Amino acid sequence: MRFEIWMAFVLGAVLSWGVYVPVLHKGQSAMGGELGPSAGAVRAFLCVGIAYFVTAVVIPLIALQFGLAGGESLDFTTKDGEINTKALTFSTLGGIAGAAGALCIIFAIKNKGLPLYVAPLVFAGAPIVNAIVSLLWDPPEDATRSEYLPGWSIFFLGILLAAVGAGLVLFSKGMIDDKKKELRQEKAKEQAAAMATNPEPPLSAPPPTGIQDQGPA
Questions:
Q1: Largest separation between any pair of C-alpha atoms in the chain
Q2: CA distance 36 to 41
Q3: Three-point CA angle 46, 50, 54, nearest 5°
Q4: Quick check: 56 and 48 in contact, CB under 8 A?
Q5: Contact of 131 with 159, CB cutoff 8 Å
Q6: What is the pLDDT of residues 139-198, one digit of tens each?
Q7: 87, 79 Cβ separation under 8 angstroms
Q8: Nearest to 28 by CA among 113, 96, 100
Q9: Where are the domains of the chain?
């Protein structure tokens, strides 16, 4: 398989979204301070919004204005000169969906979700939804032909494996949480047993100060 330019950008997206949740969790933790990540979640999301504005508004405007967008211009009209409402609507809805997903991740972490579990669940479930929506909106031409059956079989096997992966993440979380609780209980029992077999010695009388009472002269 020959490496193409679009694959580099896919790799960039994988790396960016791959570090998104852990980096965001670090920001929330630092923002919340001693109170924990949940205390800094909304302020951290405000910083995300500022970053979105710079990345998704300022940079595209500069690229469109100075001809750095591969031939695109700052124009939102159709060939007839009318406002391209369909393009604007769906593009804006896509942005809302992306921001809503980020907000959901924020509140998942705010409500004691750990990046170790949040990210795999999100990035295993999202491709499944993406595949279903894409098939419903833009079904491949002649998709029912028998020649395509091997490819479709592998495609749906991939979706199934993604669903199984999400389920295994949840299952593993339960096992880890149960084991953590069990180990804490065992540690508490060991500490209680140690205190019962080795009670603290009674407090001794204070040592003499070296000054003795003198009788009457």
A1: 123
A2: 9
A3: 165
A4: no
A5: yes
A6: 777 777 777 788 888 888 888 888 888 788 878 877 888 888 888 888 888 888 888 777
A7: no
A8: 113
A9: 19-113, 114-139+151-194
